[in-house]
């Protein structure tokens, strides 16, 4: 009996004791400060001690520029509005371990000189920016010199017509181990801009309707991009001067315009592009100076040019990709070819598979003569869809003279695997 | 004149060719819509019909018709009827018949399945091209003395506008690629109704984004009201001038 | 009624008519004769507007007709070889012609019924024999009761009965005071019908006189012989 009693006491009292410890004890270490309509948010922040949590009730605040130099947590209840009045940078964070969560930040100041942002982080390691709504800001989130930044589930909306009117949505400069996940970015200059950012992960973001690039990154090695959607951006996605990038399951859609690309690769090496979708872009992938990169299981559908492979690329390997309903599958500007394109599916392939091994019996040449001509003399594009061009392409298919002899798929896949559906 | 047109129409319907042409257009357009559900892609495929078949059928059929109705014209010219009236009636009869065939054969399916702005301008340029090539056929017919020569001439004209002229443009582009060529090429294109119609159509399709800087220039030009006016005026010239020459020759022609 | 002044016609370099000047008067029947290729048909076509003269003037009732068309109401033209739209039937052809010229004049369908074309009205033009075509051409020429009739080889190819019907019709119209111009190689027919004769040679009008005068000059009472004699006298060939 007494043994049972002891057990029951332990069972009920110990948890009570520990919960007391958990809730009661920290109150002595860090406080929770409540802010309501009429309070000065700026003063409350100044009064807060490191480790404090400030909870802001729903109201319209005009806090001016808030500089945070201690590790505190700021939380909005029901998205209180922080109005920058088109004059102030709303948050300037220069401390470790800061959390900003649940705010609706509007009308940040605009200045190209200072890169004014809604939230700016400088040397703010471990910063967490989560569930904020940023509207009509110049730069949205601007992070530099920061390790372990986490930017999660923020919504950034801006209305801009000209590049100079707006900054980038999420801007990272010189960071390490950043994690940018689940953000929704619309109407900025570049949706996400990343420079000198390494070992980071960018995933599940949606970047739509930005004036320049949906994603723009340079000198950012060893980063991974997964499950992002880049849609209707002025110029698509640009990836430059970077090594060891991994891109998986991203979707590049509807980047139409005379200088728009699904993805622009410039001086990229040793990277992996797998399971991505390129749909209805003027150019699916434009590659220049790209080396030793593997393109596998991607789908290119309804693009103007699926892949523009410039002669400066070498050692790349395209395999198991599907090319469907593109105007031109591959175009290039030189005769020398140092890339492999064996084992892809091409809907324009007209050969047969008599031995039924799943591969067409004769090689497929995805480069049309006319696309070569246009590459060399752009005004020749005016002859597009003319009978002459039709005849030239037919003749070239039979007897290749001008198109690169070696740029051909020796093992064209007869059937397209719907890789994307399998992987989902 | 309307009475003469009436008999020309009777005659055209009796040959059944126009009906055949209509059915051909209708079947191929419907087939394209069946095979491809995206109206944009269908318009692309239709462009081939528009640029190849319409000029070819228009010019050959008109030439044959001209020589087949030579007796009729001879009969008319001995009557108190103005020579110009006879020729204009012939022109109206043939071009209206061909244009209606095109309108129903291509326009009908476009109306049902929806072709958008590109569809509308496709119908318009198709009709314009029909009229242009009927004009050219009349000129070829009136300048020659027998049917075989006239058909040969008509084929040559079609070949010239569909192929040879474009080869010439390609040559120009290749040799003068280092110079800004947008405006000279615009002029060159205006000198060929097929090219003009083709470029007008391309600019109406979102595919023109593929055409780079050159495309952007033309897109801007052809979407401005002055650009549209320019191309319509040029096409009207292509209809009126050959026919005017035909009239001039015809009133002096010995039957 | 018709006055021709200094009419010239070139086909490229070949001169088919050489400065022809002649008057045709109402109520007379002119026989236009000459060897093959002498320009008879060209002259007739100039008057009926199918051939455009290179120079010169043609006046009908004192109005210049070159380049105009209304005057053709006054002319009935029967071509040497009638060409008609192949697919039309005779009935359709006549109703079309009546339709196109409706209101022009009182119709004269005597030849249409005289030649029994009404019995053939379902026949298509391309199935017709040369003779029947000639009948159609003749019937059309007289159909609109024109004051001037120009007949190019009217009796060639016609059967004897039809030929007689046509000649009777021509005589009848002569009585009605019409101007009739006939080319023919059949001298007997011309002898019966014509009042005056014109002789064309290599595009030139070399002789014109009344039939009575020719016969008187040569002392022959048959036109054929009279013409022969006259030509030999003047050193022309037939």
Describe the structure.
The complex is a heterotrimer of chains A (424), B (255) and C (238). Chain A has 424 residues and is an alpha/beta fold. Chain A has a 13-stranded parallel β-sheet with strand order 1-2-5-8-11-14-17-20-23-26-29-32-35, with helices on one face. A 13-stranded parallel β-sheet of chain A has the order 3-6-9-12-15-18-21-24-27-30-33-36-38, with no helix packed on it. The model of chain A is unreliable at 20-27 and 419-424 (pLDDT under 50). By secondary structure, chain B is mostly helical. Chain B has one domain (2-148, 161-252). Chain B contains eleven helices and no strands. With 238 residues, chain C is of the alpha/beta class. Chain C has one domain (2-234): Rossmann fold. Helices cover 34% and strands 26% of the residues of chain C. In chain C, the strands form two sheets. In chain C, strands 6-7-8-3-9-10 form a six-stranded mixed β-sheet, sandwiched between helices. In chain C, strands 2-1-4-5 form a four-stranded antiparallel β-sheet, with helices on one face. In chain C, strand 7 (148-152), helix 5 and strand 8 form a beta-alpha-beta unit. Chain C starts with a strand and ends with a helix. In chain C, 42% of the residues are buried. The model of chain C has no long low-confidence stretch (mean pLDDT 90). At the A-B interface, helix 4 of A face helix 3, helix 7, helix 8, helix 9 and helix 10 of B.
Helix content of chain C: 25-40%
Strand content of chain B: under 5%
For the largest interface in this structure, which chains are involved and how many residues does each contribute?
Answer: A-B, 26 and 35 residues
Mean pLDDT of chain B: 88
Structural class of chain B: mainly alpha
Q: Distance between termini of chain B?
A: 20 Å
Q: Calculate Rg of chain C over CA atoms.
A: 18 Å
Give the low-pLDDT segments of chain B. Answer: none
Report the CATH topology name of chain C: Rossmann fold
Q: Major sheet of chain C: size, sense and barrel closure?
A: 6 strands, mixed
Q: What is the helix content of chain B?
A: over 70%
SSE order of chain C, one letter for each helix or strand: EEEHEEEHHHEHEHEEHH
CATH arch. level architecture of chain C: 3-Layer(aba) Sandwich
